[in-house]
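Exam prep: given the inputs below (a chain plus carboxymethyl coenzyme *A), describe the expected output before reading on.
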Amino acid sequence: MSDGLHECKNAMLALEGSTVELPVWEGTEGERGIDITQLRGKTSHITLDSGFANTGSCVSKITFIDGEKGVLRYRGIPIEQLAEHSTFLETAWLLIYGELPMREQLKKFSKTVAETSLINESLHYHFEGFPRTAHPMPMISAMINAMGCYQPALYASEGADFDIAAARLIAKVSTISAFAHKKTVGEPFRYPHPGLDYASNLLHMMFSVPYRRYNAKPEVARALDRILILHADHEQNCSTSTVRMVGSSRANLYASVSAGVCALWGPLHGGANMAVIDMLEQIAGSGLTTRDFIDRVKDKSSHTRLMGFGHRVYKNFDPRAKILKEQCDAVLQALGANQRILEIAIELEEAALNDEYFIERNLYPNVDFYSGIILKAIGIPVNMFTVIFAIGRMPGWIAHWREMSHDAAARINRPRQIYAGSPLRDYTPLKMR
Ligand code: CMC
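Solution:
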């Protein structure tokens, strides 16, 4: 077993008249897991855990979450401290390599990211094949996979090849994302500017046009950088588990993170930040009161969810939502942006937090509840919200792919199932059906 774990006691499973002993492992923060790796061999039974809510898929040293207490730490450091003092690139290094970088390491990493942010000219032609109406997420996933064609033999999780791939992915996902936006709005691509910080460069590539350079206000660049930090990792969420799943077959880093982008796209995962703005605008435009909307959500037959609320792991405040709620007010004031949707968001939050339905189910605002409001105020189009999430999550995906590749005990991920289909039957020829 991995270091950082210790065996605390055994669990006894009584099954069909006999007892099976299963080891129990404890991690550095006291989380315990029953080790069932021998279960099928010893009992011929498997476990059934829809949505994997009780299943630990790996042992990881990257991110710690205590969902009951609303705690999130990257490599042991509280998210609040990173949001306050760090930058996205420094946090990326921390996640991937495990320690805060020394001054020289950060300088070199930032320089490599800045200098590798151009994409190969021939990749520009790929954008021509996408319809203008395409959502940017599949474009980004496809482009990242295409980038893998330039480093197809990358299976190393250590050394210069890995270092350059990690920096390239962080650099180029921002360029590809800005180009996807330019494709959608029909404007010429703007090349990266190596003199700008990461967030300002992304905004420059998205919003500069040939006759007018976009210069991000420092508070706007800082707010975006902070959003990227808050999204940089979240342990075994759907997209990160996808990256690990794909990587477990020894698919290379580009293919693995390209799959992560697809998983993130769904509205129950990264797509929720778009859904929050749609919901808030729908309420603002419809004349519905927030109370009416909450009642609709509670009526299961309406199939309406309060988007940006609830989380598989957090059964208390999502700490990222707390940070962004404070940030929201500051950004809207700095930009003089329309406060109405923020007001609706605050009313909805208050109504939900005092309502039995939400209290009973431990439903609190998650990171997406406030991130969309900030992104909208900055001028990021709604279809790019999930893209910003993907840019932010890139270091986490890379860190998990690397950790899994280092793990000598890692095997190809291959869950089992319980078959509930038809029992054995014979094929009926077409003329007899
Ligand atoms: N609005 C109304 N009811 C909800 C909501 C919500 N947002 N979320 C959960 N519930 C109810 C759900 O109907 C169920 O009720 P009941 O017990 O009566 O059947 C109960 O709460 C448990 O919900 P669940 O769907 O079993 O919970 P889950 O852990 O499978 O789902 C979730 C977690 C995030 C998918 C879900 O809370 C949700 O759909 N939220 C809205 C979408 C959203 O904001 N997603 C962003 C997640 S944070 C970013 C990320 O990490 O991806």
